[in-house]
Every structure is written in C-alpha cells, then in structure tokens.
Amino acid sequence: MTADRTQLGAFLRSRRDGLTPADVGMRAFPGPRRVPGLRKEELAVLAGVSSDYYSRLEQGRQANVSRSVLDALAKALRLDEVERKHLLVLADPSDQHRATSALVQHADRGLLRLMTVMDHVPALILGRRGEVLATNALLTAVLGNLRPASSLVRFMFFDPLARERIVNWEHFAASTVAALRGELGRHPDDDRLIALIDELRSRDADAAQWWDDHGVQDYTSAAKQILHPIVGALSFDIETVLATRSTDQVLVVYTAQPDSETTRKLPFLASWSMENTASG
Fold it and tell me: Which of 191, 2, 212 shows the shortest CA–CA distance to 91?
C-alpha cells in the first residue's frame, strides 16, 4: 500500500482511540474492551459502513474511498474542519498536492504590501515548513529571534528564548507539530519537510509524543501569551490571510482587543524597538 494509505489508517485509528461510546451518544457493544476508545465495529456502525470495509480502510488495504464515506467518517469521529480537510487529503490518491517547491522561497508581494500597512500590530509571513519569509518590526520586538530566513519550528523547539517568552509554550508548540502533520499530508514527497520532522522527533521528546498523537491543526490555531522582558504580559489572538498566488504562504497577524492592556502597550513596545535598533 502507499504511504498515504498507511497515514490514512493511522490517522483514523488515532481519532477513534480518542472517542468513547459515551462521547458519541451510543451504547457500548458488549464484551471486554481491548482498545482505549471506540471499537472498529462501533465506528463502522456510526459511519454506516461494514466492519470489514472499515477494517480494510484502517489497515491500508482499501484502494478507493468515496467522498460520502469520508464525510460519514468525519462526522462520526467528530472531526473539526482542519482535521476533516486532512482526512480528505490523506485519502486523495491524486498527486496534485504533492509537488515540491523550490529550495528558496520568496514572500508573496501582495502579502508583503498588507504587512507593510499593519505596522501597528505584530505580523509575519510564513511559507512551507514553517519558514519565516518576512516579519515586521513589532513581531521581532515581541518574539526576539524569530526573523526572516529563520524557522518557526526550530525557533519553537531549539531556541531557549521561545520557552522564556511564550507563556503557553506547550500549547503553541503542540500546535506547531500538528501543523507539520497537516503539511506532510499535503506534501508527502517533500524531503526537506521529512528531514525537519525527523530532526524534531529525534531531538525533542515532547515533539515526538505530539507527533505520535496524530493531531492536526494549522500554524495559527493557538492563541499567544507572551511575557516580554520590557512591557510584561501580552495576549494575542491570531488572524490569517492566505496568498492568492500561493497556497503555501500565509500572513499571520497578532491581534488584540482595542481596549486591552496589550493594545496600550504596543506603541511603547514599537518605540522601544526603534530605539533599541538605532542604538544597536
């Protein structure tokens, strides 16, 4: 079987293990339970397929899967929108989403123009593999070492500053791993992405565990809680803009409530950043 089919089965199994009969409003089948979550037979009933068919699917032995079956499985497994898209990508036998990109990425011009007019909030442009393609001054002031030509993934796990400044580092870091999982589903032939994941799993035990959990998100799913050495606590929510010319680039904007402490601190942080840059 193909790697995609193997990954499809592993993803289904991980989501099935995370649900109990009570979670989905059904009575548990009788007999001793050897699995932490739903049995295959229970999920098959919920999705309206035969137990044999679902077993073949989870074992990677089912060559074709219809969209209606995938939709039924997504509903039965209570998948969110990101997880549902990931399921569809893993089940898609076409190669249209597998093309690898050039070694050097360049920030989309349209996203750069948008980032330029957003100098009052932190913002950055992310490309494939979590590579940072551009940042504005406030983003650098907030996160320090996360700069153009760096890696969000390597910053999160290998730069001590990330754990110092990001209060909810564990949540943010787990989301980063889940984003890599989603990206690998879209680009299973990307050797540089595979090497990055292998490096991450070998060097960080938390990352290895999160990877084995088969969670999937996007790079912006977690809110950011920052403890800055100059202005103290900062709290951000995230908004994203996709590039019209490249599905692999996204503008990430750190937003804050208009009347919040964070909003009041940002002008001072911007001024401090300019002074610090000038003196440096």
Answer: 2
Beta carbons within 8 Å of 52's beta carbon, 6+ residues apart: none
**Total-model pTM:** 0.79
* Beta strand residue intervals within the chain, DSSP E: 123-126, 132-135, 224-228, 232-242, 250-255
Topology of 3-91 in CATH? 434 Repressor (Amino-terminal Domain) (1.10.260)
Contact (Cβ atoms closer than 8 angstroms) between residue 269 and residue 138: yes
Give the pair of three-digit tokens for residue 85. 């898209």
- CA nearest 252: which of 215, 221, 217, 207? 221
Q: Which fold has domain 109-279?
A: Beta-Lactamase (3.30.450)
pLDDT one-digit tens code per residue, 32-88: 777 778 999 999 999 999 999 999 998 888 878 889 999 999 999 999 988 898 898
Give me the residue spans of the domains in the chain. Answer: 3-91, 109-279
pLDDT digits (tens, 9 = 90+) for 132-171: 999 999 999 999 888 888 999 999 999 999 999 999 999 9
Alpha-carbon distance of 118 to 174, in angstroms, equals: 28
Ranking 213-222, 250-259, 260-269 by mean pLDDT, the lowest is 213-222
